């Protein structure tokens, strides 16, 4: 073959040997917060169930991932993740496992639904939170340092348990944002706003987390969403 016939095509991504492919699915839309009526708490964190729209999100996720080769499904300690995972788990015959380290960011005194109200009001503390890129400007909320530590430990546990496998992790908007920011080396809150029911993806190989997708919402029939989804 002459040199003029040699071709070097663009190659597709190939996961490194021993790595773990992690799909991060944000839970479906949860029930609305209402003034004077706090969500039930689990270990001090709001635990709303899915709204009717959220149950449809769960079905849409199940249809999207039904033909994927998944080795495990994980949920957190909060029921909205288990409810979102249920249709896919039933289709695949996989019993969801619980990873407590990927539960939502703890919002301190603003748990139980109050955080949503403060966001809607553009409370000065919310403005400060975004300006300083820290959750703990909210009274009693989780620090960036503590959040980073528990998320890293949780992802490392999952990777150690699933080399050369793909797993689906049903989790929360704040956690997806944190994982993506850690992988990308970005500002801590640069990736907030993943849609309910969206799919993000990292590949974990050793200490390296490779970003593969963020906020994939093609299965939700929402087009190119222009508005960030409310957290929690």
Automatic annotation (TrEMBL):
It comes from the Bacteria. Pfam families: His_Phos_1. CDD domains: HP_PGM_like. Residues 30-52 are annotated as: Disordered. InterPro entries: His_Pase_superF_clade-1, His_PPase_superfam, PGM_Phosphatase. GO terms for cellular component: cytoplasm. GO terms for molecular function: phosphatase activity. This is Probable phosphoglycerate mutase. It comes from Saccharopolyspora shandongensis. The lineage of its organism: Bacteria, Bacillati, Actinomycetota, Actinomycetes, Pseudonocardiales.
């Amino acid at each position: 073959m002459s040199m003029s016939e040699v071709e070097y095509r663009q190659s597709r991504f190939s996961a490194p040997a021993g790595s773990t492919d992690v799909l991060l699915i944000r839970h479906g839309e949860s029930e609305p917060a209402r003034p004077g009526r706090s969500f039930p708490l689990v270990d001090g964190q709001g635990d709303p169930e899915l709204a009717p729209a959220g149950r449809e999100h769960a079905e849409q996720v199940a249809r999207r991932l039904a033909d994927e080769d998944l080795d495990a499904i994980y949920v957190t300690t909060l029921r909205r993740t288990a409810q979102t995972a249920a249709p896919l788990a039933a289709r695949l015959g996989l019993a969801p496992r619980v990873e407590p380290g990927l539960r939502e960011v703890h919002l301190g005194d603003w748990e139980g639904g109050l955080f949503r109200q403060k966001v809607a009001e553009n409370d000065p503390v919310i403005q400060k939170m975004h300006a300083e890129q820290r959750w703990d400007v909210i009274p009693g909320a989780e620090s960036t340092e503590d959040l980073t530590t528990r998320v890293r430990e949780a992802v490392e546990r999952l990777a150690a348990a699933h080399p050369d496998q793909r797993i689906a992790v049903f989790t929360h908007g704040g956690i997806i944002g944190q994982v993506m920011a850690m992988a990308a080396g970005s500002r801590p809150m640069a990736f907030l706003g993943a849609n309910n029911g969206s799919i993000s993806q990292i590949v974990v190989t050793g200490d390296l987390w490779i970003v593969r997708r963020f906020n994939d919402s093609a299965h939700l029939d929402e087009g190119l969403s222009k508005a960030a989804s409310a957290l929690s």
